[in-house]
Structure formats: C-alpha cells, structure tokens
Specification:
Layout (H helix, E strand, L loop, with lengths): L1 H12 L9 H25 L1 H11 L6 H9 L2 H4 L2 H22 L7 E4 L3 E2 L5 E9 L4 E10 L5 E8 L2 E2 H30 L1
Antiparallel strand pairs: 1-3, 2-3, 3-4, 4-5, 5-6
C-alpha cells in the first residue's frame, strides 16, 4: 500500500502545466519540479505539514479533475445524492486526497522514474501515460489516466499503480460505507479523517 500511495502521489504532482504540453511532458516536467521542491524543503515540510499541504494544493489541485474523480469513486450513488451532498463530498474528498498524498510524498527518496510517450484515444481527448518507478527491490508500473477538458488542459482522473486501480479501490471502500451509513455517513467519515 505504501508504494501505491507513493505512485499516486507522483501522479498527483505530475500534471501542472499548460494545455499546449503533451500529457507525458507535463507529467515528467512537473514530477521533477515538485520532487526537487520536496527534497529542498523536506525538513521544513516535516516540521510544518501545512506548508506541504499548501504546496500540494498549489501544484496539484488545479490539475486533478476532482469532480470527475468524485463521481467515479461514488459510482451509482452519485446520481442518488442531493446537490448539497455532492458538493460536500467533493470538498471533503478533495481535502482527504490532498492531505493523504502530501503526507505520502515523504516516502520518495530519490527513486528513478521512467516515462513512456502518451497513448491517446481516437478523439485525442484522453491519454494514458505509463511510467515505471524503480525502487531498490523492484519496478512498479504506474498508468496515469488524463482527460482534456473544454479548456484544453489535461487533468488527472485515475491512476493504476502496481495493478491497483485507485478509483475502483476507493469505490469499493466507499460503497461499503454508503450501504451501511448512507452518503452522509461517508461525508462525515471523510470530514473526521480530515480533522485528524
């Protein structure tokens, strides 16, 4: 699970760039930039996690399609939820993602990352960028899934790391909570995690 979070963290920091850049260039350039910043400020970020969260929000949040990811992880329950529940879920899920993956960045310790050129769908509005994270004992395959919005910016909507699909993983967990406690129960659960 540790490697999964590291891989997803790399995904999240990967795509902060303008719409003129290819998804693979966006990923490699931004990962290098953010990881350099992490290495230069590691001690400061450990002492003051709010600075790390701010850095992650500044660089990551604009390039994650949080609404789309939210819909995907809740699945069929999205349409059954009120507009207010949807808005509350997006906010709590966004905070949960940003904090969780900011903390996971500390697992990075100089591992090599190799990227493949983007593979596009027929309409050229979705792309997959495959990468390999080389750890000391093995290579971890990561597939970054991005979609191009109406504004022509590429945004992340999923990642598959070491065979684990993050959207599916969250959906399985969240479906169980929704079935037992309802959508409000899921929102409250995330809010509680965000406060801790």
């Amino acid at each position: 699970m540790k490697n999964l979070f590291l891989a997803f963290n790399l995904l999240l920091v990967a795509v902060f760039a303008n719409a003129q850049t290819t998804p693979d260039n966006v990923i490699s350039t931004t990962v290098d930039k953010v990881l350099t910043q992490l290495e230069q400020n590691r001690a400061d970020y450990k002492a003051n996690p709010d600075k790390l969260y701010a850095m992650v929000e500044q660089h990551v949040l604009p390039v994650v399609d949080v609404e789309r990811v939210s819909k995907l992880v809740v699945g069929k329950y999205w349409r059954r939820s009120s507009a207010e529940q949807q808005t509350m879920f997006i906010e709590e899920f966004k905070s949960f993602l940003m904090k969780s993956y900011a903390q996971g960045l500390f697992q990075y310790s100089g591992q090599q990352i190799n990227y493949q050129p983007a593979r596009y769908n027929d309409d050229k509005n979705k792309a997959i960028v495959d990468a390999t994270l080389q750890t000391s004992d093995r290579n971890i395959p990561v597939s970054f899934k991005l979609a191009q919005g109406n504004d022509k910016n590429w945004r992340i909507y999923n990642v598959v790391a070491d065979g684990i699909n993050l959207v599916t993983n969250f959906r399985t967990s969240y479906t169980s909570i929704i079935q037992r406690q309802g959508m409000d129960g899921l929102i409250n659960s995330l809010a509680e995690k965000n406060r801790s």
